């Protein structure tokens, strides 16, 4: 039997890696072009990612959709998992009914549908996370959340706002969290950690290749935000990319080491809820 040529094996791996990097760049570029050319608002821009994600996962990655949320298992929920899904769907379902009655518009209604449906996939990820018992990663997730919220608090302070959340604002933040937690399992987080990072990382959790791919997927996440930001300047674009690369990389490593989207989704949702409490909460 002829031994494999190490050089040809290395060349094949490098070609596969380069192809995968180009594929994720193309995915994000197509998404950005659609958002910019159609002048979509944030909700509509996020929703464009749903069909793009399905096509990418099915025909580019050629992987089951269930792998977006949990590695190595098919979708399944126990009775307890369905109870968790129902609990997570209560608030977005209520907000959806309110939006329909108020005539809030198609994009908002579809966003809330995504949040309601996302409760099922969130329950899938959290159920599997509990089954695998990777509790040591909770400390890493908590530390990342503290650092991320600290950055938002500093931004609020520099903008002349209080970084503290007062009791009325806490209720607003809780509502935002209950919306964002399920929705990130259908929009944004599921794309950049569930698909993009998984496609280019080959599961690496340590070493230069692991960090390079994690930072790259995070930088793409930052670039993806630019079409929906007002008055983007070069310094703004650079800062957005650096911020999202810095936080996207550890989120990606959490996804790889736990094998589920549960903890990255939890951190992402909590950070966004806190940010909205600082900058978007109604005046009390």
The number of distinct structural domains comes to: 1
Strand content: under 5%
Distance between the termini: 77 Å
Number of helices: 10
The number of E-state strands comes to: 0
Task: Outline the biggest β-sheet.
Answer: none
Order of helices and strands: HHHHHHHHHH
Give the fraction of residues assigned to helices.
over 70%
Mean pLDDT: 94
Based on helices, strands and strand pairing, what is the structural class? mainly alpha
Low-pLDDT parts are none
Shape, per Cα inertia axes: globular
CA radius of gyration is 19 Å
Could you list some keywords that capture this structure?
single chain, 284 residues, mainly alpha, 10 helices
Description:
This protein is an all-alpha fold and 284 residues long. The protein contains ten helices and no strands. Helix 1 runs antiparallel to helix 2. The longest helix is centred in the N-terminal third of the chain and has 32 residues. The protein is globular and about 70 Å long.
Tell me briefly what this model is:
With 284 residues, the chain is mainly α. The protein has 10 helices and no strands.
Write the layout of secondary structure elements.
Blueprint: H1 6-37, H2 42-60, H3 79-102, H4 106-132, H5 136-158, H6 167-183, H7 189-201, H8 208-225, H9 234-258, H10 262-279
């Amino acid at each position: 039997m002829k031994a494999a040529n190490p050089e040809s094996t290395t060349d094949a791996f490098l070609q596969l890696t380069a192809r995968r990097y180009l594929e994720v760049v193309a995915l994000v570029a197509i998404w950005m072009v659609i958002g910019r050319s159609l002048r979509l608002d944030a909700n509509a821009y996020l929703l464009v990612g749903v069909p793009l994600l399905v096509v990418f996962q099915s025909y580019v990655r050629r992987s089951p959709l269930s792998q977006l949320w949990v590695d190595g298992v098919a979708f399944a929920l126990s009775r307890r998992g369905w109870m968790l899904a129902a609990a997570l769907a209560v608030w977005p379902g209520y907000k959806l009914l309110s939006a329909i009655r108020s005539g809030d518009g198609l994009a908002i209604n579809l966003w809330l549908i995504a949040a309601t449906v996302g409760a099922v996939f969130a329950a899938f990820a959290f159920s599997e996370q509990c089954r695998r018992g990777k509790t040591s990663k909770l400390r890493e997730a908590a530390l990342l959340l503290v650092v991320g919220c600290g950055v938002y608090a500093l931004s609020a302070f520099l903008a002349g706002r209080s970084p503290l959340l007062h009791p009325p604002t806490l209720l607003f933040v809780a509502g935002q969290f209950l919306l964002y937690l399920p929705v990130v399992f259908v929009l944004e987080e599921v794309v950049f950690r569930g698909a993009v990072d998984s496609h280019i990382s080959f599961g690496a959790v340590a070493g230069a290749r692991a960090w390079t791919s994690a930072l790259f997927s995070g930088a793409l996440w930052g670039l993806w935000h630019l079409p929906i930001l007002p008055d983007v300047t070069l310094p703004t674009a650079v800062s957005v990319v650096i911020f999202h690369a810095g936080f996207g990389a550890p989120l990606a490593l959490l996804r790889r080491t736990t094998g589920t989207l549960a903890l990255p989704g939890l951190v992402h949702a909590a950070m966004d809820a806190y940010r909205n409490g600082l900058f978007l909460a109604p005046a009390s």
